[in-house]
Design a protein that fits this description.
about 200 residues, mainly alpha, 5 helices, disordered C terminus
């Protein structure tokens, strides 16, 4: 075990700190994350404009509260696909510790199939709702159809469906899921066979 003296020195002989941050690598960022970030910034700007008009100009822009609510919805629905891509939504893995490996593998596969079915059903139901509403339902203060908001929700469900298909494919290729191996992530090396991966941990 290395002592603290063996670690790279942060303070130089000149008495100054010479810390160097690691390079920021955004190559693994899901594409949907950039879209969610854009909605988040629009939300922040809208809320700031609301604050400015209310407390500085003393004449609050009424539309900002409604638009901010819709932008929050957009951020959540698009951002939820990031959780699907990283496979870190809330899940219970307690019982998998006591299951035989074969049963755990089968149950994890069922979870993948049910997740795909859920997001697929959400896509179909959202399309049906949007078709039924048409152009009749409008926003309260802004003269735009509510299907603009529901369209973003639909895009989020489509992203989550595609990501869940990708997650199931990765699980099938490597032979285990995070439910069976809680220390695993979606970034695990797929070139390592499952048995060797188990031996490495």
């Amino acid at each position: 075990m290395h002592s603290i003296d063996d670690m790279p020195h942060v303070m130089g002989d000149d008495g100054q700190f010479h810390a160097q941050d690691e390079a920021v690598d955004l190559s693994g960022t899901p594409r949907e994350a950039w879209l969610a970030l854009a909605f988040f910034w629009l939300l922040g700007l809208t809320v700031f404009y609301q604050f400015f008009t209310r407390y500085v100009l003393n004449d609050s822009a009424a539309w900002t509260e409604e638009i901010a609510r819709y932008l929050l919805i957009a951020t959540v629905f698009i951002g939820a696909s990031i959780g699907v891509a990283k496979n870190n939504h809330i899940q219970v893995d307690f019982f998998y510790r006591y299951m035989p490996p074969g049963m755990g593998r089968a149950m994890a596969t069922v979870v993948d199939v049910l997740r795909i079915a859920f997001f697929g059903a959400a896509v179909v139901l959202t399309i049906q709702m949007m078709t039924k509403l048409g152009q009749s339902a409008r926003m309260t203060l802004v003269d735009l159809p509510m299907n603009v908001v529901y369209g973003v929700c639909l895009a989020g469900f489509v992203f989550m469906l595609l990501r869940s298909l990708w997650v199931a494919r990765v699980h099938l290729r490597r032979g285990y899921t995070v439910l069976e191996r809680v220390e695993s992530t979606m970034e695990d090396d797929l070139s390592v066979p499952p048995r060797q991966a188990l031996q490495k941990t």
